[in-house]
Every structure is written in structure tokens, then in C-alpha cells.
Amino acid sequence: MIILFGVFIRYNEESDPHWSEYRRAKNISSDIENDFYFRYPSFQDVHVMIFVGFGFLMTFLKRYSFGAVGFNFLIAAFGLQWALLMQGWFHSLDYTDGKIKIGIENLINADFCVAGCLIAYGAVLGKVSPVQLMVLTLFGITLFAVEEYIILDLIHARDAGGSMVIHTFGGYYGLSISWMLYRPNLDQSSHLQGSVYHSDVFAMIGTLFLWMFWPSFNSAVTDHGDGQHRAVINTYLALASTVLTTVAISSLFQKHGKLDMVHIQNSTLAGGVAVGTAAEFMLMPYGSLIVGFCCGIISTLGYIYLTPFMEKYLKIQDTCGIHNLHAMPGVIGGVVGAITAAAASESVYGTEGLINTFDFEGDFKNVAPRRQGGLQAAGLCVAICFGVGGGIIVGCILRLPIWGDPADDNCFNDEPYWELPDDEESIPPILQYNNHTHNKDIVESNFTVEQNSR
Amino acid sequence: MIILFGVFIRYNEESDPHWSEYRRAKNISSDIENDFYFRYPSFQDVHVMIFVGFGFLMTFLKRYSFGAVGFNFLIAAFGLQWALLMQGWFHSLDYTDGKIKIGIENLINADFCVAGCLIAYGAVLGKVSPVQLMVLTLFGITLFAVEEYIILDLIHARDAGGSMVIHTFGGYYGLSISWMLYRPNLDQSSHLQGSVYHSDVFAMIGTLFLWMFWPSFNSAVTDHGDGQHRAVINTYLALASTVLTTVAISSLFQKHGKLDMVHIQNSTLAGGVAVGTAAEFMLMPYGSLIVGFCCGIISTLGYIYLTPFMEKYLKIQDTCGIHNLHAMPGVIGGVVGAITAAAASESVYGTEGLINTFDFEGDFKNVAPRRQGGLQAAGLCVAICFGVGGGIIVGCILRLPIWGDPADDNCFNDEPYWELPDDEESIPPILQYNNHTHNKDIVESNFTVEQNSR
Amino acid sequence: MIILFGVFIRYNEESDPHWSEYRRAKNISSDIENDFYFRYPSFQDVHVMIFVGFGFLMTFLKRYSFGAVGFNFLIAAFGLQWALLMQGWFHSLDYTDGKIKIGIENLINADFCVAGCLIAYGAVLGKVSPVQLMVLTLFGITLFAVEEYIILDLIHARDAGGSMVIHTFGGYYGLSISWMLYRPNLDQSSHLQGSVYHSDVFAMIGTLFLWMFWPSFNSAVTDHGDGQHRAVINTYLALASTVLTTVAISSLFQKHGKLDMVHIQNSTLAGGVAVGTAAEFMLMPYGSLIVGFCCGIISTLGYIYLTPFMEKYLKIQDTCGIHNLHAMPGVIGGVVGAITAAAASESVYGTEGLINTFDFEGDFKNVAPRRQGGLQAAGLCVAICFGVGGGIIVGCILRLPIWGDPADDNCFNDEPYWELPDDEESIPPILQYNNHTHNKDIVESNFTVEQNSR
């Protein structure tokens, strides 16, 4: 990695000490117009989403919090280095000297690229080894860069918040891998596949940071000025609307009208996913509310009906329910984006607005909005194909018996990969006790162990 | 809600694709002068305060963390949509076409508006149902918008950080509702009205995010340039000073000189409340320290003496002690603001500074600072009246027996409203045991239940 | 404090209401060029690192979370007031009227100054009283301001991210104090010197916020434009690289290849420390990766071999391992900074770049890069001397028996300083039971106590 960076990666003109000369040459009046000041606050928010948001969202399992946060940290830090290289080769290569010139926008895109793999991690959470995760990330980043190049640069679709390139791809990539790694005897670990009170509160940290900073996610790489401004407003409204429908549906479909923490933790975020592609378009505030409204319903019902169905009949074990949180809303987002783009008109956007928003320039200046709608739909198909196809291939690789994956009765457990503090080592005998060894002496000795370990 | 948004809400010129044409027409030199770049970082900080700050601050109860974070999330997401409409009608309505034009400043104001209701939630935490909370929020937002319109637009008081419009109003609104909903037999739930070790640590997450981002709260909607800069410095200093006095008073007045986590979690924030109105004025750094110093004392003593007194004699049960954290410091903030405004002089502010800071323009250009001081005081009275009056009316509505509020012995308990993980379902028998059923067999069976659920 | 602020501290021209006049006089075209908009997002990130990052990083102890977060809060809030004064006298004193003019950059520097003392707190965590901490902070801030004045203003070394002035100084200051306060019988508290499952997850909150916002830390006070941009890229890459080596080394050197949470929590941050001085220089992306790579190895091996060695043979008890996280990487950062500065050339930086980056102006314009390298090395020596010397002196003061420090068997325990919730008061009898009182009746009564307290 160091060698590759040494050969290929350099600072771009905005992060190079020649900036002040460049600035004068380009007639830029002030340091504040460095792209850094347009994008850095959004970048930091995205960074928080990747590391705290995704990391803590997955801590809900009672005994896999270390793995959730720790492996998330590991693969994100690995992935962003690899993403800078892969995305650089495809997007930022300067052909005059064969170098990749990086600036703040590349860092944001690397974080986006990593997000795709973290989504996939959600499907296989607790069932794979860290080595498998590294392999999943290595191939995932590579596929992502190719797919993004096809969708954004060849097809010329627009996808500011990545409903298609990030969420649809990441979702189906993870689901396909999980399908290939199906474990028929996973119920041996079922006593660990649940939450405890405080692990659910930890997961809410992840949920809230994702929810709050999603407007930054969708606006981070949109156009300066009105583009970023509009993307924030649309995402904010879609998310607010999703929360209400999620709570309503969760309460309606549960027995006794109680709320389920799983829905609150996950489905409330679906609106941000679904508004991703269209966030920079003129979706209008009520359009954002409608998107959020629908996604809250679909995502929550997905958790109630679809996830058990998929596990039972399609043999896809989806630990975090990424199909409901990322894959389905991502597809909805792609469709909404295509419709909104196809409906674009000069009266709504103005001539300059059409150019700024859709890059209708050069060869593409005469592309009608309708054609743009078609391109968006094509982009969505490419994302699904790459997700499913790539996931099956990588899943095959991960089935090789060389990666040290955990046994069926040791899934959702930090114990194989982490040095646990003493209070946790009292667990195995208690589990043994759970296995119906009703013996009072053992109860008391367990109790002694537990007391000792406090 | 979708229909109302469809009819009324549109993007403003800074978030509309015609921005680049507008910019050229107005001779604005760069995209970076879009209001978005002045306010977005502060907006995100305020957003964190609303969802993580207020949400986690209330997780201190041992068995009401889901309700604290989850219902906070729900009512905030609902409230901000309603606030965009209500505040839009009063403040941002474009009379040429009857539409509300929204931009980043409207999003910040909607978050502010929601803050008022979340403060009120603090007083009734654990004693109301989610439906009651929605009603409380619906009326609270409406009252807030009216009160804000009277104080800021009719009276022309200034209130950058909302000491009066947010904290004083929200505090007295919540206290009045709590007074109307007085429960004489609340001690039946007293075993749940306390914290455990880890729930106090969770609450510290809320405290710290509120504390750190309060400078953004007070500066988010102040004037560009020196106004935002000065508001940050004043708030930062007032908060730092409050921490020291809170720790000192807490240690002095507790037995054995021990610190009480309740004070550290709450009273340390009082300085930020009290400096809200005057943050953009020339309060001077030492003035901020004095305000913080006094508030730390008053707020901590309030927790030690006033809250028990209010519960016993005034029949106001204030779960989070919002009287000490929001109501009293808010009143102090209004008074400090009135004094600082009355003391404004051209020698300190400069002619332009007076115009920028106090909007002494048009009809009001000749208003002497002394009159501005009077207006500030009038604004404070309006805020208190709206808080107390509105709270009593809404409290009456909430006393109707149709809202599904929890029984006296089931307060401060997530169990009626949430699907709890298994480890919590072992609680009811243990509570039963707490109720003096000293029977060894039951103890052992409880123990078995608990072990099983881990 | 209030009096000192009243006498000395005023707003600077960018936070004063005369800003709009000043702006016109200086021909600054827009409010957005107020330094506030260059630095405020970074400031808030640094603020989060100080209060949430350092605070929660130290919550890993099973029974010292209140002390970690609470005392961190206390001394940071105290320290930043004192730092504004001390740094103001040395750096920002306006000799025309004898006042200190403060703006956003002073707030950032005050936070930096506090960071030095919080690092020192890491070494003595759990073994000192709050009064001792206040004394440690008072002297630490004072020493810091003098040392920073010598390094930055007299020697004219550059230290954007504070590898030398903050981390090296803070690290050796804390280690020297810990050496002076050596407790031979500390093993009486060894049952409390460990973590539990959830306390480790809390600590990960601190780790992640430090890790994510470190780019802001290193770029907060660098030059506008390319300087901030480059510092962010370098820090981001160094940190990403450190995570990978930390995980690899932790897994290689532990039995069974398991990961140790202590390393993940701490060593992953070492790269950000080590890249601090050189972050604004042309370290090049691969250079950042190399620095991060080396630091991950050294820091993790330090936790495995050096910390036990120091405790056993050098009588330095380093609770958080700050030697591995701050002191060693800080020294590495100083050396890297000296090398990078000495290698600076006009071909890489351009003439203006050299002036902007190294302030080669006035008397120093002809200073060759090689001489700058020597100055950097001299700065590093000054930082180490101040750290060790100051630590020994302050350690002597703290050994006086008047500060109320905890007994050897009561270290790492919140109980002496905090009102604990009931669930914790059941601990003493259980500990008593730990001390080998194997009596079944006591077991059962403990059990009863614990059940009652839930």
C-alpha cells in the first residue's frame, strides 16, 4: 500500500503549497474559496457516520459489540486507503504525469466507497472472521470503483447521495454473500442473536448519528451553492417523515401496540437512503415527505414480514436487515431519481440550473431530461447487477475453508476473536447451565463466578 | 402534513436552482456567500444537541432509556415538520405568492422550536404516554410560534440563543403541564426513579454534547461575521465558568463532600441558557464569566433545595429538574439581556455595530438603548405568560382519560410501550420480590430467570 | 478569575462590533472571510475531542467512569479559562493597551493547552483526588504556556498539531508525576484495575471521536487554504494506516491470535500524534502512511512490553499507557517534523509556499531549511525538558499529604468522590466476599442486596 501510494498519489492543486500562486492565476479572490471550506464540515459528518454511525448501529447484539465496532473500524480504515487508489485510477488520474491528485473530495468519496462494504458487513455480522471481512472489503471496493465509473462516468447518471452506487450495490452485495454463506444450523447460536437493554441504547447512538448527519452525506459532493443547500433540505424532511411512519407502523403491527427497538434503530433511516439520488434535484419539500413516508412503511413491514421470509425460504440470513434499510430503499431512491430527472424542465430549473444540476454540457447538452431519466434507470440496473453478481463470486471465494470463520454454535460471539474482560468469561458455564443442567450446586457455583468477576 | 407542505412550502432563492442567476443579479461574488456556508456547521451542531443531547441527557433513569431516546426522537421529528409550517406562516411567508420559502435558517429555527417542547418533555419524563407527548408537542409548537412572533417581530426584542423564547417558555410550559398532571401516588414507582451506574454514563454523553455545542446553539442565527464570533466566545466562557461553580457547590452541600452526578449532568449547562439572549451583545468576557458563575450556584442549589420543595408543597413533579436547568436560568438570561441592551452605547458598538446588532433601522432607528432594554423585559414577560398559560390549558387537555397514560406504579418504566429484550423481562418478578415477599424459593427462581436471560 | 478576565481580556477585531468598519478599512470583501468561518468547524471538532474523546477514552475502568468523564470535564473547563489568560499574556497581548484580544484561534489554542494536561491525567487516572488534579492542571497550563512561547515564538519551530508542545510535553509531564507518586501497594486495588464489557464499549466512543476528528486537531491552527487542506489529508492517511498495523501486531503478539481491546482503543490513535508536527509540511501521502505504519507497531509493542517493564523496574505506573500513545509518538512526530522541514526545497513548495508554510519572513527569510530542521529538533528537546522537569517539581508538590488522595486499596474507585446509585453500593460486601469469606449465607445475602438494588 505504501509503495502504491508512493508511486501514484500526490496532492491536488488545492492542497499543494503552490495554491497561492494557482489562486492568483485563476483569479480566485480568497483562501475561503478553496474547496476545503465548501466540503470539510460535510466530510467530518460523513466520517462520523462511517465510524460511529455504522459501528454503533451494529452493537445491538448482546455479545458482539467489540466485533461490531472494532471490525467496522478495521475494515473502514483498510477500505479507505484502497478506495483512494481504486477511485483515483478511475476518476482522478492526471494523464499528464500518471499521478492521482487527491483533495478533500477524494476523501469523501473514499468514505462513500467504504460505506458500501460496511452495508455488506451488516448482512454477515457475527458470522464471518476478520480475514473474511478484509477479503470482502478488498473485492467490494474494487467492484464499487468499477461500478461507480460505469454509472457516473460512462452512463452519466447522477447519484449525489449514492442511493444506487452505495446502498443498492452494497445491499445486494451483502445479501448475495450471505446467501452463499448460508448456515443451516445457525440456530445453535440463537441464544446470542438478541440484544440486552444497554446494547440497544448503544445502537441508538449509531442510529442517531446516522440520522442527524445524513443530510451531510447526501450533500457532501453535490454542487457548491444551491445544490448542497437543497440536498440538505430534502434529506432533512425525508428523514423526519420516515420517523413518524416507522413509529406508527411498528406500533400498529406489533402485539399490544408496543414499539420494537429494531424498527426504531433501522427503519427511521430508510428515508435518507431513498432520497439520495434525487436530493440535489427539484424534488420539492412535499416530494421528500412522500418519499420518507413510503420508505418508513416499506422498511418497517420488511422487518416484520420479509426478513423472516427470506431466512426461511430464500436461505438468506440477514443479521442487520440491510435488505430493509439499504437495498429496498436504495432501489426506491433510484426510481425516484429517474422520475425526478425525467420530469426536469427549464421552467423549474432555469437554463443555468439545468446545466449546473445535470451537467448538461458538451456532448450531452442536448440530452433531453427524459433521456436522463433513462440513464438513471440504467444506472440502477448496473448497480443491482454488480451487487448480485459480485456478491455471488466473492461469496464463493469466502466459502473456501481457509479463512477461519466461526463455528455455527459460536456465531454472534466476541469470544473467538477478542480478549474479553473477566466478567464475560463467566458466560460459558452459565450457557452450559442454560442447556438444561438443572442442578442447584452448579447454579450456586455460577453465581460465585459471576460475583467474583465484578 | 404532506398536503400542507405541498401547498405552502417551497425552496428559497438560496436553495433554488436559479441561485446562480440570482447571485449574478445581486452581485454576490462567490458560491461560498450562500447562507448555507455561514450556518451549516452550526446547524449540524444544533441538530446533534436536539437528538443526541436532549435524548441522552434523559437516559439517566435506570429503566426508561428507550423512552428517553426514542420518544425524544419521535417528537423532535414530528415537531420540526410542524414547526417549519407554523414558523413559516408567521415569519417566512412570501406575500407575493403565498408560499413559505425555506432555507437553512428555517431548519435551524425549526430545531429551536422543537427544543422548547423537549424541555417540557423533561418535566413529565416517564409519566406520560407517547400520544400525550404528540399532543404536548403539537400545541407547544403552535404556542411557540405565536409567542416567538410576538417577542421578536412585534415587540422587536432580540433573543439570539433563545433564553426567553425557548428556555423560559419551554421550562414554564413543562412545569405547568406537570402541575396539572400531578400524581399523588407517584412514590409507587419510586424504585424506578433513580439511575444505575451505566445509565448515568449514558446521560453524560447527552450532557457533554449539549455543553460542547451550546456555543453553536447561541450563535446559529446571529448576524454573519462578528455576531456569530462573539456569541461563541461568550457562551464558551459562561459554560466553562458554570462547571467550576457547579462542582464546588455540589461538593460543599453534599454530605462527605461527594459529588452528585445529577448536578454535573444538568447544572453545568445552566450558563449556556443564561447567556443566550446577551450572547451577541457586548457582554464582555468577564461578564460571561459572572453570568456562568451565578447560574452554577443557583442551578445547583435549585436541585438540592428547590426541587424537593416544589414536589412537596407546590405539587410540581419535575423529573429532570428543568426548573433549575431551563426556567430559572432562562429568566436570568432575559434579565441579563435587558440590562446589556439598556447599557449599549455608540462608543462600545460603533454606529454600524448598533445597527447590525440591534437592527436599529427604519422606524426603530431612533429607539434609545434604554427602550430596547424595556422591550427585552417585555419579551421575557410574554414568554413566562405563554409558558404558564399554555401549559395549564394543554395540561387540562392531557388530563382527559383518553390518552393511555401509564398507571402510578408503572411510571419511569419502558415496559408498557416497548418490546424489551429478555434480560428485562426478569424484572417484574424481582420487583415483586422487592415488595417484601421474602421467600427463598422465589429468590432462587428469580436468579434462574436472570441467568437464563443473559 | 473573573477579575483577571475583567482587567485583561477583550474581543479582537474580528469578534468586535466594529468588524464591519474594520472590514471595509482592510478591503475585505465579505463577512465569510472572518477567521471564524475558516476555523469554527475545526474548533468544534477539537472541542469534541477534548471533552468526549479524552473523557470517554478513560472510561474503560470498570468502576471509574464517573471520575474519568467528570474530572476530565472539570479540569478541562478550569484549564481553558486559565489557558486563555496564560497564552494571552505570552502570545496575544496587545502592547498598545495591555489587553489580550481573543478570537476563535485563542479558543482553539486554549483547548490545545488543556489537552496537554488531560494527557497527563491519563497517567495518574484513578490514583489522585480532584484537588490534586486541579493543582496538576494549574501548573501544567502555566508550564505549557511558557514552553509553547519558547518553542514557537523564540525558537521559531513550527508545530501545527502539537506533537512536541502538546503530546511530548503532556506525556512526559504525566509520567514524571506518576513516577513521583509511585504507590508500591497499588495491587490492593488490582481487582478494580480492569474493564467490563460495557465500559470497553464506552471507551470506544472516546477512541472513535478522537480518531475521526484528529484531522481537525492537526489542521485547526494551520494556514488558511492549502495548509489546512494538506494537514487533513496527511492526518487522515496516517491514522488509517495505524489502525491496520495495530490490529496486525495485536493479533500476532497475543496468545491464540486474539485482539486486545486496549490496543484498539489506544494504539490506533498514535499515527495522528506522530504526524502532528509535519502535517502541514509536504510529507507526501506515502510519507503519512509510513509514519502511521511505524507508530502502530511501536505503540502496540509498547503496550505489550514497555508498560509492564516501566511499572516493574522504573516504578512508573501509567494507567492509560500514555507513554505509548502520546510520549513516544510525540517524539517520533518531532523527529519526522525536523526531517521534513530540513528536506524542504523551493522546487517542492514554490517560493510563496515556503514563506506561507514556514513563515520564512523578516529576519528569518534567509534561514535555510536545514536550519529550520535544527530549530525543530531544539523545540523537541525543550518540550521533553519541560515535561520531565515540570513533572518532577509538580509531583513533589502533589506528594504533600494535604490533598486528600485515595488510599492504596481505594484507587480506581468512584466511591470516595461520587454519590453512587444504589446498584453500586452493593459492591463493598461483594468485594468482602471476594476476599475469600466462603460462606454460603453471605453469598445469599449479597444476592439479595443485588436483587434489591435493581
Automatic annotation (TrEMBL), chains A, B, C:
<keyword id="KW-1133">Transmembrane helix</keyword>
<feature type="transmembrane region" description="Helical">
    <location>
        <begin position="377"/>
        <end position="400"/>
    </location>
</feature>
<feature type="transmembrane region" description="Helical">
    <location>
        <begin position="131"/>
        <end position="152"/>
    </location>
</feature>
<dbReference type="InterPro" id="IPR029020">
    <property type="entry name" value="Ammonium/urea_transptr"/>
</dbReference>
<feature type="transmembrane region" description="Helical">
    <location>
        <begin position="233"/>
        <end position="253"/>
    </location>
</feature>
<comment type="function">
    <text>Functions as an ammonia transporter. May play a role in the elimination of ammonia in the gill.</text>
</comment>
<keyword id="KW-0924">Ammonia transport</keyword>
<feature type="transmembrane region" description="Helical">
    <location>
        <begin position="106"/>
        <end position="125"/>
    </location>
</feature>
<keyword id="KW-0813">Transport</keyword>
<feature type="transmembrane region" description="Helical">
    <location>
        <begin position="64"/>
        <end position="85"/>
    </location>
</feature>
<feature type="transmembrane region" description="Helical">
    <location>
        <begin position="164"/>
        <end position="182"/>
    </location>
</feature>
<comment type="similarity">
    <text>Belongs to the ammonium transporter (TC 2.A.49) family. Rh subfamily.</text>
</comment>
<feature type="domain" description="Ammonium transporter AmtB-like">
    <location>
        <begin position="35"/>
        <end position="400"/>
    </location>
</feature>
<feature type="transmembrane region" description="Helical">
    <location>
        <begin position="286"/>
        <end position="306"/>
    </location>
</feature>
<feature type="transmembrane region" description="Helical">
    <location>
        <begin position="202"/>
        <end position="221"/>
    </location>
</feature>
<dbReference type="InterPro" id="IPR024041">
    <property type="entry name" value="NH4_transpt_AmtB-like_dom"/>
</dbReference>
<protein>
    <submittedName>
        <fullName>Putative ammonium transporter Rh type C 1</fullName>
    </submittedName>
</protein>
<dbReference type="GO" id="GO:0008519">
    <property type="term" value="F:ammonium channel activity"/>
</dbReference>
<dbReference type="GO" id="GO:0097272">
    <property type="term" value="P:ammonium homeostasis"/>
</dbReference>
<dbReference type="GO" id="GO:0005886">
    <property type="term" value="C:plasma membrane"/>
</dbReference>
<keyword id="KW-0472">Membrane</keyword>
<dbReference type="Pfam" id="PF00909">
    <property type="entry name" value="Ammonium_transp"/>
</dbReference>
<keyword id="KW-0812">Transmembrane</keyword>
<dbReference type="InterPro" id="IPR002229">
    <property type="entry name" value="RhesusRHD"/>
</dbReference>
<keyword id="KW-1003">Cell membrane</keyword>
<keyword id="KW-0325">Glycoprotein</keyword>
